[in-house]
Structure formats: structure tokens, C-alpha cells
Amino acid sequence: MDTTSKDLKIQLPEKEKALDLLYQMILIRRFEERSAALYTEQKIRGFLHLYIGEEAVAVGVMDALSKDDAVLATYREHGHALARGMSAESIMAEMYGKVEGCSRGRGGSMHLFDKALKFYGGNAIVGGHLPLAVGMALANKMQGKNHIAVCFFGEGAVAEGEFHESMNLAALWQLPVLFVCENNLYAMGTALEISESEMDIYKKAASYKVASSPVDGMDVLAVQKAAKAAVDYIKSGKGPYLLEAKTYRFKAHSMFDAQLYRQKSEVEEWKEKGPIVTFTERLKAAQLLDDDTLSNIETRVRKEIEHAVQFAEDGNLEPLEDLKKFVYST
Amino acid sequence: MLEVQQDTIETTYREAIRMAIREAMQNDERVFLMGEDVGNYGGCFAVSMGLLEEFGPERIRDTPLSESAFVGIGIGAALAGMKPIVEVMTVNFSLLALDQIMNNAATLLHMSGGLFNVPVVIRMATGGGKQLAAQHSHSLEGWYAHIPGLKVLTPATLEDARWMLAAALEDPDPVLIFENSTLYNKKGSISTEVNKVNIDKASVVRNGKDLSIITYGIGLSKSLEAAEILKNEGIDVEVIDLRILRPLDTETIIQSVKKTHRVLIVDEGWRSGGISAEISARINENAFYDLDTPVSRLCGEEVPMPYAKHLEHASVPQIETIVKQCKNILQHERV
Ligand SMILES: Cc1ncc(C[n+]2csc(CCOP(=O)(O)OP(=O)(O)O)c2C)c(N)n1
Q1: Average per-residue pLDDT in chain B?
Q2: What is the mean pLDDT of residues A299-328?
Q3: Measured between alpha carbons, how far is B212 from B198 in angstroms, rounded to an integer?
Q4: How confident is the model at residue A94 (pLDDT cuts 50, 70, 90)?
């Protein structure tokens, strides 16, 4: 079952909730647009992978989690970090390489962490964090905690052995882990059809006896509903779950990418299905949103980002003598 | 008046490698290129740009993210008569294929009592300098140089970028080629004449009498620049480009030590147990009494690479630190 709120008429949540979901998606979008500009100004360096177009996935899934659940993401994780509740300041300062950043400037865009929010990165080895999520789920189970571990990854990661080994062990040991595959159709320049013999990722789960379903990743309500169902399933002790969110990345893989591997028209078609435009329209049609409210959200977001940029600009550099700090704990 | 002019072309390190791949593909049907994003994307460092159009998807073969499998597949294809060039995006991701490289490529010949050789070439980018932090920036070629059965090449010049691949493909055994990612844009001119370079000798890139810098990869250009600065201060530095980390050309190193009596090893890799330690040990074993000062090393700081620019800069040898260290070595002696 492909859950799309429009098809299945997923009920709109109450106004406050709906506006919050919209606000979060807009925050992520504007934060990343600003980050891209700052990259051009060379304030941010290294790799910068934008999540633009995929916001509904992180926002919808995070909404279904409790604060005790652990979250693991990839290098394309600004959206997940913001949706989990990390401040725009701590992320921006991180990308500026400042001590005030969430990882003290050691990690940069690809390695955001937050202990209080149980946000375990920011992993830049494709597939590398899947076993970690399974391990965290194992620990939860062994300690009798009813918390889950949630792992986000692209469909590219599904070709790695770690995906298969993790799925098998999670099912074999009946572990409370939610795998969220963000299938945006391309792994860098490699299209799904030249990398997977079975292109419906969620179907792979069956061979491991892992429950799974696909969901329209452009629809925040559909994602939220599917994630909620998956989390309930896992928390009721039935074992792991794989959610495949069908989505699309609107921008380049990272900042340098001629995008020779896809047609401009394809990108444009997906933009029409964009998570923010469609949700905005739906809210307007249901009279939960008017132009004033929308512009208030935009203003609030703009201020938050301005504040974050200023915070990052004002931040400090780690003294050189501390270079070798944190190689060991003591 | 007749002037014989050797033909040269302006090129880059990246284009030089592309020329080498193209030529190998044209000359030998068995050669094919395989790896993540080598085709439609044009290579993550744009090395193979345009080759898909020229040779088609059978021979410029995009793979999914499956390092262990496609490196192993390259080894298998080599066993069965092909001449694969496997591209792994960077050395960081090659760790997922370490088992195949070490337990299959490096061992099959010996384990089979000489029955099966593995003529595979595995290329990958290495090194830091781009603020890519702790999972994308290390120089692990020294690790690979620990493994008997492998040859480990580190082209640092345009000539080697252009010609080492042919030598590697001619070799009956597995050859790893490490391309420092900060070199891809390096420009220069090279001769169009066929240059059959060896893949077992280091090269003395600059002659000097006061001190020998032994280095490779990105360390070469930094060391050469440092040598220029030192020249202005009356210090005459010899610079050796190792070119190949395994087998290590001990002879060229020792000859240089016997000439200058002072050594600085420059290596972006971590110090403990690294290739610099091996070089130092060989000098001590073979030329201890020729040394006027202890062997000195400048290596990568022993820290996972930090993102922040100033921290990353401080994590690896730089021209300034090389200059300073050379002066220290000469000072040390005068004290
Ligand atoms: C093991 C490994 N191999 C290769 C890379 C280089 N790389 C980074 S992202 C990427 C594509 C990943 O695609 P996907 O998993 O679909 O996620 P997306 O980037 O589309 O979000 C590649 C090949 C890497 N980081 N790790």
C-alpha cells in the first residue's frame, strides 16, 4: 500500500500541528538555501549535501518519535538535525568550523551530533551507520527499554553489504529498529535502475522477514502516518521495520555536480510535487493557512536563520593546542 | 638552422590519467574501467569524463555502492583473463573492500603455489586538504604498503600520472594506484613521446648536498617548494620522490643518505607504524654510520582529520613546517 494523503484522504491534523509541520519544512528549506549561499561565499567549506525536496521525510518521521528514541542519519542530515530539534545556531556554527558548533567544528556539515537529543550523526560512509542503529536497538532490548533506534539512509546504501547484514540481524534478534530508506532515485549520478535489480526497496525486506512498506516521501502527512504505524509496530515488540520513502533531491548531489545523469525536465516535474508547495496548497484549501500566516512563518524562519548566521560569525576557533583533544576520552 | 623540438602538451594530472585510461582501452580489448559513478557522472573527480560516450557502458561500467563486491569482481575478472581497472572513489571507502584486496588479490598467487596471478589495477583518490573531515581525508596508502603481494604506486608528477597506469597494467600482479585528490587540477606540460616509466624505482627530483627530503604524493610539491625557500637561505636540499611505496626502493634512499648524511621524511600519513617508520628503519639498518643527525620525520598528526580549516592545516606537514624542520636538523648539528 502506497500511502498518499491525497489518495487515502489522510485527515489533516489540527491547525497548530499542521502549521508546525509546515514551519519545520520551511525552516529546513531556507536554512539550506542560506547555507548554499554561504558556501559560495566560502564561509562553509568541505562537502555540503542539500536535503532540498526531501524535507517531508525527516519532518514526518521525527514527529512520530519520542525524545528517548535514537536517531542516526547520513551526511545529508541538516534536515534531520533541525527536525529533531537541534538549533540552527549550533548547526551553522558547526559548518563555520567554530567551537560553538554542535561538534566543536570538528565535524562540519556531514557530522552533526547532539547528545541531549540522541542524535548520533552525521555518518559519511554510506551504509556505515546501519549496524550502529542495530547495535543501539540491541542495547535497548538488552536493557529492557522500550525505545527504538531510527536510521535514515539513501537507496544507494541498500547495495552495500551492511544493509543486508543489518536487516538480517535485526530480524533474527527481533530488535526495535526503524530503517528509513530515503529513495531519491539517484546515488550521486547513479540512477536506481542501473544499481538495483529490485527497484522497490521495501520488497527486499521480505527476504529477511522484516516488515516494510513504501510511502510517498513528498507528503509529510503520509510519512508521519506511516512512521507512526511503523513505530507502534516496533514498540509493540514485533521486531524491526523498513519504511521506503519515495522522494527526490532537487539540487546537486553536493555543491559540485554538473547533473549530467538526469534531465532538467525530470527535476521540474518533481518540483511540482514538492513537499512544501503541495502541503501549503492543501492547508490553504482547508483554510488552515492564509497568506498572512504564511508570511509570519517565513519571517520567523528568516529571523532564526539570521540569528544562526550571526552566532556562527561571532563564534570562536578552537585553539591549535587543542588539536589532539578527543582522540581518547582521558 | 634546424631546431629539434620535442613535442609537449599542456595538461593536468586529471587529464593525464584520463589519457592513460583511454590509451589502455584502445590498445587492449581486455581492459575495462569499473567503479562508482565512473560512467554517467564522469567520475567523482571527473577523471573518466567522456569515456562512457567513447567506449560504452560495457567497458565503462557504473557499479552500485558495493565496494567489497566490485573490487572482488575486478579480482575475479582478472583471474579469468580480463584486465580490469577498478576505481574506488577514495581510500576511505576502500576499507570496505580491504578484505578482497588483502585476502584475495594479495594472496592468491602464493596460496595457489604460483598457479593463479591477479593482474588487477585498483585506483583510488587519497589525502586531505579539502575540509572533508574524519571519514574522507586520510592517507592510508602506507597501510597498503604493509601487504606483501601488492604493488603500491603514488604518482606525484604529471609524467607518472600519464605513464604509470600502462606499467601497472603490464604487471602480472595486483597494483594499487593512489592519486592524491589535491593533485587532480595540477597543470603542466608533458612530452607526447611514449615514456615507459618503471614502477620499482624512486626518483631524485632535485639534487642537493645538505639534506635529503624523502617524500611521495602531495608531499613532493610541498617539499620542492620548501627546497626553493631553503635555497635562498643557503641550504641545498635533495628531494626524493618515492613514487612507489611497495616495493620500497631502499637503494636510492641509501645512496642519497650517503651523499647528504641528513634525512627528513615527509608523509601525510599518521606517524606510528606508518611508511615513514619503515623508511627510517631501513636507513638505520643500512646507513646508520653515514648519518650526521638522527633521521627526522614530519607526518600527519595522530588525530582523525578535523573539519575546521586551521585544524586541518595543522594536521599535516606544510611548506612552513618543512622549512622549519630542515633548519632544525642543520641547527641541531651545529649545536
Ligand atoms: C562507502 C562509501 N562509498 C562511496 C561514498 C561516496 N558517496 C557519498 S554519497 C554517495 C551516494 C549515496 O547515495 P544514496 O545512498 O542514495 O544517498 P543520497 O546521497 O542520495 O542521499 C556516494 C557514492 C561514500 N561516502 N561511502
Answers
A1: 96
A2: 98
A3: 22
A4: very high
Of A108, A188, A320, Cβ closest to residue B41: A188
B8-191 against B203-330: fold identical? yes
Give the residue extent of every domain in chain B.
Answer: 8-191, 203-330
- Distance in angstroms (rounded) separating the CA atoms of residues B202 and B248: 8
Q: Which residues of A35-52 are buried (b: 16+ CB within 10 A; e: fewer)?
A: bbebbeeebbbbbbbbbb
Answering whether pTM is above 0.80, one says yes
pLDDT of residue A256: 80
Integer Cα distance of A113 and A120 in angstroms? 5
**How would residue B333 be classed by pLDDT, with cut points 50, 70 and 90?**
low
Tell me the per-residue pLDDT of A22-53, one tens digit each, with 9 for 90 and over: 999 999 999 999 999 999 999 999 999 999 99
B203-330 has CATH 3.40.50.920 classification: yes
3-class DSSP state of B76: helix
List all residues whose CB is within 6 A of at least one atom of ligand 1. Answer: A 76, 124-126, 153-157, 184, 186-188, 249, 253; B 36, 65, 67, 89, 93, 96
Domain at A15-314: CATH code: 3.40.50.970
Provide the ipTM: 0.95
- What per-residue confidence (pLDDT) applies to B335? 43
Cell, residue B28:
587492449
Pairing of strands B244-246, B151-153: antiparallel
Q: Is B53 labeled as catalytic in the residue annotation?
A: no
Pick the CATH number of B8-191 from 3.10.50.30, 3.40.50.880, 3.40.50.970, 3.10.20.30: 3.40.50.970
- By the 10 Å C-beta count (0-12 exposed, 13-18 middle, 19+ buried), B234 is classed as exposed
